[in-house]
Design goal:
The structure is a single chain. This protein has 8 helices and 8 strands; from the N terminus they run H-E-E-E-E-E-E-E-H-H-H-H-E-H-H-H. It is an alpha+beta fold. The chain has 3 domains: 13-68, no CATH class; 72-182, Tetrahydropterin Synthase, Chain A (2-Layer Sandwich); 229-258 and 267-281, no CATH class. Strands 3-2-5 form a 3-stranded antiparallel sheet, covered by helices on one side. Strand 6 (72-82) and strand 7 (88-99) form a beta hairpin. Helix 3 (112-131) packs across helix 5 (144-159) and helix 6 packs across helix 7. The radius of gyration is 48 Å and the shape is rod-shaped.
Length: 281
């Protein structure tokens, strides 16, 4: 009985081992290479093809290597880059990629971890070559997007030899090294101060011109108003001499006697004749 049980157990184990070495599953996010003694037999569910599912292979003769089908990425360690103006920058970048030719990828690097190491080296080289040819202010601000596209194209061209497509490259951060930051910032402050002083000087010149023009216009308008006023007064005075005398007397009172002034004068004086009688008699 024990012997029969051992035979059954052995048969079950052998069947299980045979099944496990015959059938394999390729997931939706995987792509597989079936190898026979190291030689490619077929590729399953590669990028651009939807073939996930259960598959068979020759047991103990064929093997399966799986690679990720999804977009992958890595962040490159901070790199010290010297621009064309000899200023030093600390650059932090990352890349997104995917394996589009799993067989070539396997032949070139075998494992995904080794492939990522190769891509990191390619990205570092592209960063130094591209950023080293431009000035630091172009890297930091004025041409940053353009430079990232150039780096991505350059990296993709080389990564194709590994069976990899580079989707995107981004410079997350580009900062001047600590010892030169203050010097560069001081230069930037001086430049901004010069521009501000020039703007203020232009403003002052414009102000002088505007004030002069406004003064000229106001004087002209005032003169025209005074002339019109004199014309109206002259016409009015000519038609009514008594009103003219009354009006001049009221103006004299207003100008010569400030509010709150106390005066002691004889009421019969000529100056106050309109105080005594509305006709000034």
């Amino acid at each position: 009985m024990n012997r029969l049980a051992l035979i059954i157990a052995g048969a079950a184990f052998g069947a299980l081992l045979l099944i496990s070495n015959t059938f394999f599953i390729v997931g939706q996010t995987q792509q597989a290479i079936v190898l026979q003694f190291g030689e490619q037999q077929r590729v399953i569910n590669r990028v651009g093809v939807n073939q996930p599912g259960l598959y068979m292979k020759a047991p103990f003769v064929q093997s399966v290597v799986m690679f990720d089908k999804r977009n992958l990425g890595f962040t490159l360690a901070e790199q010290l880059i010297v621009g064309s103006d000899q200023e030093r920058l600390v650059v932090d970048a990352f890349a997104r990629y995917r394996i589009i030719d799993p067989l070539r990828f396997y032949q070139q690097v075998t494992f995904e971890e080794r492939g990522q190491q190769r891509l990191e080296t390619i990205l570092e080289s592209a960063l130094r070559q591209t950023l080293g040819a431009v000035r630091t202010n172009e890297i930091i601000s004025t041409r940053r997007s353009e430079l990232m596209r150039i780096i991505a194209r350059q990296m993709d061209a080389e990564a194709r030899g590994l069976g990899v497509q580079v989707i995107d490259v981004r410079i997350r951060q580009a900062d001047l090294v600590t010892e030169v930051q203050e010097r560069v910032f001081e230069r930037m402050r001086t430049e901004r101060q010069r521009v501000a002083a020039e703007i203020r000087a232009n403003g002052e010149r414009q102000k002088v011109g505007i004030v002069a023009e406004a003064t000229e216009k106001s004087q002209k308008t005032k003169g025209e108003g005074d002339a019109r006023r004199a014309e109206l007064f002259a016409g009015s005075f000519g038609r009514d001499p008594e009103f003219a005398g009354f009006y001049r007397a009221m103006q004299a009172y207003e100008k010569s006697i400030p509010p709150g002034t106390q005066m002691v004068v004889p009421p019969e004086g000529e100056f106050f004749r309109y105080m005594r009688d509305k006709d000034g008699r």
